Amino acid sequence: MISEQVVQKIGLLESEFKKHSNSENGLAMSKYMKDRFPFFGINAPLRKEIQRKWFSELPYDLSNDSRWKLVEELWCREEREYHHVAYDYLNSWNKKFIFATDNQKLKWLISNNSWWDTVDSVASNYLGKYCKQYPKEAIKLIEDWRNSDNMWLNRSCLIFQLKYGNDVDFELLKSLIKQYQPVNEFFIQKAIGWSLRQYSKFNPEAVRNFVDEINLQGLAKREASKYL
Q: Given pLDDT bands bounded at 50, 70 and 90, which one contains residue 2?
């Protein structure tokens, strides 16, 4: 159970969001996100200002279970700003707070209230750190997710290495891209190109050769070739 102290803290965040809500902005923001989520209408700089103060007042001695319950509680709320606070909080955790057992929690996060903003943030940050810290668990996770029917889990497999620089497991990435190359889904094709474009900053020749080898086409090729 989430502690009463944390419940009170969420209540304080809710009060701040309601105080700064802007219905006109909220409608525009919701429209931009294809009307998938309601918004308070708080722009990112103000939200980050509000959450910075809120983070600083959270208890320092929260257990791993309590931290995750806080994230999940925010994730289950309707307004999208709560989800953004949740992933910023999650992504701020020191590696000592990342545990091998986080895999199912990550799967739940990416599979619920899913859209590109939350998925991309969690996948390229927390998931990326998790896979580096627990390579054995990462092998099992990627094997599970790459064959899932959930497109967002598939996309996460393609982009979790975005911040790995020259340490990308290119053989793994190539196998994922070959698996998903026939998939006619915008977010998958975009992720294929994005992952290759990012790695091309460090190994352009390898990316160029691979793009030619598999005859990459369309959106994926346009994205992959931006720095080539």
A: low
Only one residue has tokens 């092998």, namely: 139
10 Å CB burial of residue 122 (0-12, 13-18, 19+) is buried
Owner of token pair 């294929």: 192
Amino acid letter for position 40 = F
Tokens 């959930």 label which residue? 150
Cα–Cα distance, 46 to 226 (Å, whole number): 33
Alpha-carbon torsion angle 98, 99, 100, 102, nearest 10:
-80
Judge residue 54's burial from the number of C-beta atoms within 10 Å of its C-beta, 0-12 exposed, 13-18 middle, 19 or more buried: middle
Give CA–CA dist 130/207, Å, rounded: 25
pLDDT digits (tens, 9 = 90+) for 135-154: 999 999 999 999 999 999 99
0.90 exceeded by the pTM?
Answer: yes
Q: Angle between the 4-19 and 44-56 helix axes, to the nearest 10 degrees?
A: 150
The whole-angstrom separation of Cα 112 and Cα 86 is 13
